[in-house]
Write a structure and sequence with these properties.
By secondary structure, the protein is α+β, with helices and mostly antiparallel strands. It contains five helices and seven strands. The strands form two sheets. A five-stranded antiparallel sheet has the order 3-2-5-6-7. A two-stranded antiparallel ribbon has the order 1-4. The radius of gyration is 20 Å and the shape is elongated.
């Protein structure tokens, strides 16, 4: 593991296995889904040990504190040593997981476009 003082945030997120590619990490950063110490990040911004990152992916918000710096992608066990997740973030993720277990999103059951029969059923409901 190559250690240095700081590394680009997009490289670090890729090396820490938050994203499958640097381009996905860069796109997420540019979309405003990554914050460093409370400020919106840019892909080339450097991160160092002790920085707090807020990473938003779909419905999950992960808040971490950086423990190690590298720009080399290694195995998941080594990548896990690069950061600590905050207690609040862990609790929020567990609650979200529990809520998803009991409540299914209705939109997830839709399998494509409605058929002609489905459309007629919808129209009959709307006419009531």
């Amino acid at each position: 593991m190559e250690l240095s003082d700081s590394v680009r945030v997009d490289k670090w997120l890729w090396a820490a296995r938050f994203f499958k590619s640097r381009s996905l990490a860069t796109a997420s950063i540019e979309a405003g889904r990554v914050h460093i110490n409370g400020d919106r990040a840019k892909p080339a911004r450097g991160v160092k040990v002790g920085d707090r990152l807020l990473i938003v992916r779909e419905q999950d918000k992960t808040e971490i504190v950086i423990k190690g710096i590298t720009d080399v992608r290694r195995g998941a066990a080594l990548a896990r040593l690069l950061f600590d997740e905050t207690a609040e973030s862990l609790l929020r993720r567990q609650q979200t997981t529990e809520n998803r277990r009991f409540y299914r999103e209705p939109a997830n059951t839709i399998e494509g476009r409605p058929t002609k029969r489905d459309r007629r059923n919808l129209d009959s409901w709307r006419d009531l």
